[in-house]
Design goal:
- It is globular and about 55 Å long.
- Strand 8, helix 6 and strand 9 form a beta-alpha-beta unit.
- The two termini are 22 Å apart.
- It has a 3-stranded antiparallel beta sheet with strand order 3-4-7. It has a two-stranded parallel ribbon with strand order 1-2. A two-stranded antiparallel ribbon has the order 5-6.
- By secondary structure, it is an alpha/beta fold.
- The chain has 2 domains: 194 residues, Rossmann fold (3-Layer(aba) Sandwich); 101 residues, Alpha-Beta Complex (Glutamyl-tRNA Synthetase, domain 3), CATH 3.90.800.10.
């Protein structure tokens, strides 16, 4: 169901409280915020707290404080409520389990007892475009029929559930930043986990279920998730859901051109706050970066409203 403000646009911020937010998260979330504001739409904050081993209450508190320090606001979320409560993924497990049952009933998933070590050890196992090992098919049924419901690994280890991709099919979508994208199932990515062996839904399934249930019309996130979008397009189709638009932005990198991670403590928003960094200065820097990129791209780039001969003020350059 689509729920929206006057413009119909619904975007989201989806942090995971497994560590402190860093500068890379901040720029992506700021861009999501700007696109929602430029569109006159609604912005949702969703706490993606599914990982019981890594999510911490102190990180939840920190993400609210840090995003507000950055100057971001949202209309719906765990702290302000809204029509799509709850906004914590850890409290939405029944929705994910229902989606898994639909996939199982349709023969779209199968149980798998392979460990990460097993997959890495597979002879000549290729890697997907996002460097995730492509599953070699050890547990994959020969035919796409309903899989057996009982299977366990060594010492009774419970299985995960993998989505069976249509080998050889090209998954195509138009990204708001990078333009037309094309990934071939079975070559650029393989069968992927939708339910973990510890009885926790995987990111791909939870993300699709929540974005559909919350009526998200555009997903803004980092370019490292482009391949994940191809996986999620397949899940949308299998569940009979309409996918949103996608807008993947470049990643922030360190001095060695490595993408930022939560281990970059010195570049966490908490550390920048403590050092007295002005959040308004960060926003101005990102706006200048966005405007420069918009000016350098060719006119008519998909999702880009700024024209090569358009307004000169950077505030007019934010794509909508």
């Amino acid at each position: 169901m689509r729920r929206s403000g006057s413009s119909g646009y619904r975007g989201r911020l989806a942090p995971s409280p497994t560590g402190l937010l860093h500068l890379g998260h901040a720029r992506t979330f700021w861009l999501a915020h700007e696109r929602a504001r430029t569109a006159g739409g609604t912005l949702i904050l969703r706490n993606e707290d599914l990982d019981p081993d890594r999510c911490r209450p102190e990180f939840v508190e920190a993400l609210f404080e840090d995003l507000r320090w950055l100057g971001l606001t949202w209309e719906e979320g765990p702290d302000v409520g809204g029509p799509c409560v709850p906004y914590q993924q850890s409290r939405r497990t029944d929705l994910y389990r229902t989606a898994l049952q639909r996939l199982r009933a349709a023969g779209q998933v199968y149980p798998c007892v392979c460990s990460r070590k097993d997959i890495r050890a597979a002879v000549s196992a290729p890697h997907a475009a996002d460097d995730e090992p492509i599953y070699p098919g050890t547990c994959r049924p020969e035919a796409a029929a309903r899989p057996p419901i009982s299977r366990s690994g060594p010492a009774g280890r419970p299985p995960c559930w993998r989505f069976r991709v249509p080998d050889g099919e090209a998954i195509e979508f138009v990204d708001g930043w990078y333009g037309p994208q094309r990934f071939v199932a079975g070559r650029d990515f393989g069968d992927f986990v939708v339910w973990r062996p510890d009885d926790v839904p995987a990111y791909q399934l939870a993300c699709v279920v929540d974005d559909a249930a919350m009526g998200i019309t555009e997903v803004v996130r980092g370019a490292d998730l482009l391949v994940s979008t191809a996986r999620q397009v397949l899940l949308y189709r299998a569940l009979g859901l309409a996918p949103p638009r996608f807008f993947h932005c470049p990643l922030v990198t360190d001095e060695r051109s490595a993408r930022l991670a939560k281990r970059h403590a010195a570049l966490s928003l908490r550390a920048l706050r403590a050092a007295g960094v002005d959040p308004a200065a960060l926003r101005r820097q990102w706006l200048a970066w966005l405007w420069s990129d918009a000016r350098n791209r060719s006119p008519g780039f998909p999702g880009e409203r700024a024209r090569a001969d358009g307004p000169e003020r950077p505030s007019d350059a934010c794509p909508a």
